[in-house]
């Protein structure tokens, strides 16, 4: 091959489309659609779901909130077909109790059977009579000296010890030491008489009752095996008449052992635990036994201990009799109400006072038990409204009824509570001076009222005025905000915006006068604001209230202000689906919140935080609209000054200003387009990402060119040419390094296509000076010559140069005079372009040599055919240099081709189908 091949472009006639072309099977811009066929392998899908569960796990900090919501949404009705529904609901409730009633105090456990204690000597006996006698002796011989008290236990250590006792019961049972297992169960039940750490008592009850249930199951299973062997017979199908005598005797033996317990509390617990065993003797006596136990609990002097043993009795009854157990809930609730005043006995007041518990903390210990008794009672009595009236009447009759009232409000369904809401508020108002749980009662009532579909305006206002008088008199800010949260939702749903604004003003006054920093209650204030945003009918109207933004900005710490601003913006944009906000007050408020979010970003902010903040600010910029275009541009200028830290926001601003430029093209003078182009040119350099800078330079230049702002377009394209060498090979996106070659190739192709219609600056002596600058830039770009991006870019440049030599270009922009009109195919201009093309062609030949040296055969084959096709399509083959180069390239490709030569075959097929093409093939001696 000669060292140089001068390039000469062929002149084309636009009227006749006689240029050979290649047929393609797919459009280059068509997206590949993936069709996913659902798998029929359910086991595989389930395994994939199980594998992905850890990645979808709920935030640990939100678990407790989710548990509370689950507890509040417990069903009030039980289907008769679901026999285990009580058990399922109780299991959910147990979890919430264990999470809520915790302590940091030191606990005590008393037992003689924990590992390390004294072991009981086991005598080997063979005679049955001696065996029975020995067991009775063991039961009577309760060696008090062996009992050890372990003090100073943490909550977790206490839980561990209880689990150890449960395991000891199982071990003793498996090793035929059943009397020891019985003694361990008795000692566990005795732990429930200890109320030295009251705030942990509900959780301790849950732990111990599970141990007693397990013991009762062991005894029941042994009796069932003695009578029926290995048959799996459920409790409800056991007929006492079919039970073997040995099983009945064993059952009576266990009941006698239980009756021999001297102390009342362990005897009651053990009898309840073994209640199901009575079925082996007589099923008819079981329900009278439950009634007897209900009355026997009256003998418990401690009301806290008494109500939880009633819960255990009701739970055991529901496991055995399901729906038939519901009257026992009603009976135990009535017993509790009759003994209600014991809760406020001076002895109990001294005990919880000595433990530094407040009155409301003490009363809250009873709430889970009372709620559970009410749960069963409500399922028994289907006339809920009459039952509610009856219970409210009792609340009016007895003193200190706040505990019962709070539980009643939370237990009943919303429709019943709403009908009696005025009566409930009257009870609260009459007893407001001495109520320590008023905030819970008002909060529960407010939650019910939020479910009201409609309320008469007068009634809603009266209710709202009543609760506000009660809430504003509270001394505790936390209690006030707890009450405010549901009632402000009720106001949003039922009252006018003026009324809501009045409540917000009063809230601000209360928080200021309370004397406590609002930052201490930022989470509760945030919940209140979230409720307002989610339930007010017109969310934009909220920003027109003079008290809303002051309440949002009442907190002063940076973290609290940022969290508040993010919450408001997130909920606002979730509800506001409009694409346009033109109220200046709303826009100013949103901008204020966006500034707070932006200013919180610093060097230590994580990527997700910055991304979230950027999305919120971008959304605000997108929806903010001003009728006057000058005002809109000034708004974007303010945004640029305020949000310099976030690339995503600056990118959105450039796109918004380019859109504004196109909007103003028809309505305003050329100055607006120039101002917008200048804005973009100044803003783009602030971006940290070089690839984003290059993309926006190109876009801004194209918009400026579309608006006939030639100078501004040139400035953007010059900046783009200067940026291209700095584009990295990889960019960090979503925590991963992603290559940029494909995106850069598309960017350069777009840029070169735009240069075709860009006119030269008449004041410049250089022809096609931006393109020439780009060609020179390619010389210092750190791309390898064997890289596909490099030689593909050279091919695109060669295409552009050949097209620019034509008398008429393939496309134009209205009102823009391109170089075909500006030069009119002037010889000097065409010669300059062909010189550039010669240099590019020579560089491509150098690349072919480099590919040969690197043994990149496939790339060399592809490039030789690409260059051959361009010579045939765009070159003047009348020139010997062009025809010689084409012939050499074809021979090179034939020498390199392999079995897969589709491209070469396609080129031959196209040329042979055209007469001029066949002549060309004969001239080039191509076969």
Automatic annotation (TrEMBL):
A GO BP entry: endocytic recycling
Localization (cell): Endosome
Keyword Protein transport (UniProt): yes
The keyword Nucleotidyltransferase is annotated on this UniProt entry: no
Key words of the record: Endosome, Protein transport, Transport
GO cellular component: endosome
Coiled coil start-end: none
Family of this protein: Belongs to the VPS35L family.
Protein name per its UniProtKB record: VPS35 endosomal protein sorting factor-like
């Amino acid at each position: 091959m000669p060292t140089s091949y001068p390039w000469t472009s062929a002149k084309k006639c636009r009227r006749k489309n006689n240029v050979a072309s290649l047929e393609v099977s797919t459009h280059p811009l068509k997206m590949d659609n993936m069709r996913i066929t659902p798998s029929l392998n359910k086991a595989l899908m389930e395994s994939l779901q199980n594998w992905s569960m850890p990645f979808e796990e709920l935030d640990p900090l939100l678990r407790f909130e989710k548990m509370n919501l689950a507890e509040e949404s417990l069903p009030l009705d039980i289907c008769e077909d679901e026999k285990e529904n009580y058990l399922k609901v109780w299991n959910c409730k147990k979890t919430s109790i264990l999470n809520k009633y915790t302590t940091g105090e030191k606990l005590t456990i008393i037992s003689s059977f924990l590992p390390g204690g004294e072991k009981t000597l086991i005598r080997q006996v063979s005679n049955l009579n001696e065996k029975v006698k020995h067991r009775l002796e063991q039961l009577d011989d309760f060696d008090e000296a062996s009992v050890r008290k372990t003090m100073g236990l943490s909550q977790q250590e206490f839980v561990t010890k209880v689990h150890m006792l449960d395991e000891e019961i199982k071990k003793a049972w498996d090793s035929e030491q059943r009397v020891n297992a019985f003694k361990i169960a008795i000692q566990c039940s005795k732990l429930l008489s200890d109320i030295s750490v009251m705030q942990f008592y509900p959780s301790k009850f849950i732990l111990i009752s599970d141990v007693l249930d397990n013991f009762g199951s062991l005894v029941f299973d042994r009796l069932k095996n003695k009578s029926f062997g290995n048959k799996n017979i459920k409790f409800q199908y056991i007929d006492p008449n079919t039970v073997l005598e040995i099983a009945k005797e064993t059952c009576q033996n266990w009941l006698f052992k239980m009756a021999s317990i001297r102390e009342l509390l362990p005897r009651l617990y053990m009898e309840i635990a073994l209640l199901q065993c009575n079925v082996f003797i007589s099923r008819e006596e079981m329900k009278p036994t439950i009634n007897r136990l209900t009355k026997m609990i009256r003998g418990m002097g401690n009301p806290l201990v008494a109500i939880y043993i009633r819960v255990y009795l009701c739970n055991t009854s529901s496991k055995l009799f399901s729906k038939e157990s519901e009257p026992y809930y009603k009976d135990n609730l009535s017993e509790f109400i009759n003994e209600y005043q014991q809760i406020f006995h001076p002895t109990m007041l001294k005990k919880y006072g000595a433990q530094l518990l407040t009155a409301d903390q003490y009363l809250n210990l009873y709430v889970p038990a009372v709620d559970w008794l009410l749960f069963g009672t409500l399922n028994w009595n289907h006339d809920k409204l009459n039952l509610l009236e009856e219970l409210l009447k009792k609340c009016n009759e007895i003193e200190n009824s706040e505990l019962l009232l709070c539980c009643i409000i939370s237990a009943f369904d919303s429709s019943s509570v709403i009908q009696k809401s005025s009566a409930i508020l009257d009870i609260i108002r009459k007893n407001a001076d001495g109520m320590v749980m008023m905030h819970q009662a008002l909060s529960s009532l407010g939650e019910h009222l939020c479910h009201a579909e409609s309320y008469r305006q007068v009634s809603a206002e009266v209710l709202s005025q009543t609760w506000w008088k009660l809430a504003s008199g509270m001394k505790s800010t936390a209690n006030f905000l707890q009450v405010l949260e549901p009632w402000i939702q009720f106001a949003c749903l039922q009252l006018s915006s003026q009324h809501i604004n009045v409540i917000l003003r009063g809230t601000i006054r209360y928080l200021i006068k309370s004397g406590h920093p609002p930052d201490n209650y930022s989470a509760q204030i945030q919940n209140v604001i979230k409720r307002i945003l989610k339930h007010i009918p017109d969310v934009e109207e909220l920003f027109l209230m003079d008290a809303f933004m002051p309440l949002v900005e009442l907190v002063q710490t940076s973290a609290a202000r940022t969290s508040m601003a993010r919450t408001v913006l997130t909920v606002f944009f979730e509800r506001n689906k409009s694409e346009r906000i033109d109220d200046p007050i709303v826009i100013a408020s949103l901008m204020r919140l966006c500034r707070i979010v932006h200013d919180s970003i610093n060097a230590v902010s994580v990527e997700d935080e910055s991304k979230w903040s950027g999305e919120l600010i971008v959304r605000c910029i997108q929806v903010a609209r001003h009728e006057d275009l000058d005002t809109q541009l000034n708004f974007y200028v303010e945004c640029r000054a305020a949000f310099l830290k976030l690339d995503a926001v600056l990118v959105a601003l450039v796109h918004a200003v380019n859109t504004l430029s196109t909007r103003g093209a028809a309505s305003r003078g050329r100055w607006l387009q120039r101002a917008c182009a200048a804005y973009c040119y100044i803003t783009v350099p602030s971006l940290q990402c070089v690839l984003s800078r290059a993309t926006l330079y190109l876009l801004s230049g194209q918009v400026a060119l579309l608006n006939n702002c030639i100078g501004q377009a040139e400035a953007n394209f010059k900046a783009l040419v200067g940026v291209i060498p700095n584009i990295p090979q990889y960019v960090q996106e979503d925590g991963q390094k992603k290559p940029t070659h494909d995106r850069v190739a598309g960017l350069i192709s777009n840029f070169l296509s735009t240069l075709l219609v860009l006119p030269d600056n008449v004041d410049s002596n250089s022809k096609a000076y931006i393109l020439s600058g780009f060609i020179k830039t390619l010389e210092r770009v750190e791309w390898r010559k064997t890289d596909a991006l490099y030689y593909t870019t050279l091919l695109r440049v060669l295409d552009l140069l050949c097209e620019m030599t034509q008398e008429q270009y393939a496309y134009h922009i209205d009102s823009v005079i391109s170089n075909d009109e500006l030069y009119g195919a002037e010889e000097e201009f065409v010669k300059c372009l062909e010189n550039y093309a010669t240099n590019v062609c020579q560089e491509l030949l150098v690349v072919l040599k480099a590919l040969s040296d690197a043994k990149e055969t496939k790339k060399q084959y592809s490039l030789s055919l690409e260059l051959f096709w361009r010579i045939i399509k765009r070159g003047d083959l009348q020139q010997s240099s062009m025809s010689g180069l084409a012939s050499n390239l074809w021979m090179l490709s034939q020498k390199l081709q392999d079995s897969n030569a589709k491209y070469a075959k396609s080129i031959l097929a196209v040329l042979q189908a055209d007469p001029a093409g066949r002549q060309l093939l004969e001239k080039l001696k191509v076969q």
